[in-house]
Write the structure tokens for this entry.
Amino acid sequence: MIRLAVRVRRDQAELVLAELLELAPRGVEEVDIGADVVEYAVYGAPGELPALPDLEASAGGALVEVVTTEIADDWSQRWREFHRPVVIGDSLTVRPPWEPPGSNSIDLVIDPGQAFGTGAHATTRLCLELLLGLSGAGGSFVDLGCGSGVLAIAAARLGYSPVLALDNDLASVEAATENAAVNGVSVEVRRFDLRSEDVPAADTVTANLLGPLLRAWAPRLAAVPARLIASGLLTAEADGIAEAFAAAGLREADRRVAGEWGALLLERA
């Protein structure tokens, strides 16, 4: 197994990540190297990884270094150690299938597979916190960029219906479909391209995307729901993104922050 890491300047990291996900749609690992550098890594057998020229082109002037490392044979087992249960208050537990059940009233089993989103990353956790705070909201629900299906499955368990999970990555569609079945909830999962398709109508939409994408697509996203949970943004981007959605008709009702990441609850006035 090979680990291929691309180190880029932090001020360009989000834009580079968007390009890297085109080359490695199954997801990338993110590691903070220092105050000014972020490392994105992908794993695979020799010959399966993106070509170096493609990576260099994606990173452009933000590139700092490319590092290739051979991973030990027990990598697949050690990988499990990084996926631990996520517990949010006394309401929700999100755990991988190899961990025992939690004691909270909602216990979700999520196999991360090769899709992004196990509940552990700050962007997903912040979305879950905001979703749990919408007591009794209910109604229809759409999850944009569903990854492994955490948010959509949690919404279904919270009583939202119908629930639709959308992602452009085929691995995410497969993972979310399997995880919904394991958790015994009704979630429609399908492939979706926000660049060419309109967001389906819904009472509540979660969009765990990148900050630049949220800002660029604010008018289209805001046209659909009564409320939207926007995450995947850096705290430094939050004010600007909130302003973009306010101009489109959704105003900030709540904000959550974890380290450098932020999430916004936006509601129609």
